[in-house]
Amino acid sequence: MTTLFTSVFPLLAYLAYNIIVPLIERARPSLSVIMNMQRRRWVANATRRESPFDAILSGNIMGSVSFLASTSVLLVLAVFAVFGQLPTLMQALDSLSLERTYSVLDVQIHLGVMLAMFVMAFFAFTLSLRQFNHFCIMLGALEHDRDATEEEIDAIAQMNGLGARNFNSGIRAYYFSVATVAWFVSEWLAIAVCLVTVLILAHREFFSSAHRTAASAALIAARLRRDAPPRSDRPAPSRDL
User: Fold this and answer.
1) How far is CA 40 from CA 27, 90, 176, 197, 209, in A?
2) Number of domains into which the chain is organized
3) What residue ranges carry the coiled-coil annotation (predicted)?
4) I want to staple 179 with a disulfide (CB 3.0 to 4.6 A). Which of 10, 60, 70, 211 is the partner?
């Protein structure tokens, strides 16, 4: 029973993290929440310009997501390949394990856990890629001969935020999968690595220098937006060459 618990623990921790962190964000904004404010600024600024700049930014983001989605497929195939090499893997574990010798069933269950995490990462990345694709379409559909409404800007920014949220979910699956690799060395090492992973992710989201920098930038932008005159009172940009 202990072996089963330690084997499944990284998967449970990953799922719990994705459930608990959004609840914490209601009381303390995370780095992801702060960056959603910048995403809205991006969309608001994109409504006032006609240039390939936004398409280039979107393409770079989608390229990164696509690369990680492809990597997830390779990892899934690698786990399936390991299922076919269990005798060799068991011999390696006999010399690697620090505590005990795992049974074939223990290893099969753990490989199933690893497979589940990589499959979830794949679905998270592909869903993120699809949502970023929707974002590009919505951004390209903007009409530049009139001012976009606040509702339009919010909807497009929310689509970008959904893509980022699923991208982060896929990245977390990679982080927690490190603990599943540590399990082959020691059951309790997997628990320790998993807890350290939670602390690292929490620090990055709520207490890192990137969080402080992004929060400062969002505060400055909010102050400038508050002090700026209404858009209807601003002079129209010159289109002379």
Assistant:
1) 21, 52, 30, 30, 22
2) 1
3) none
4) 10
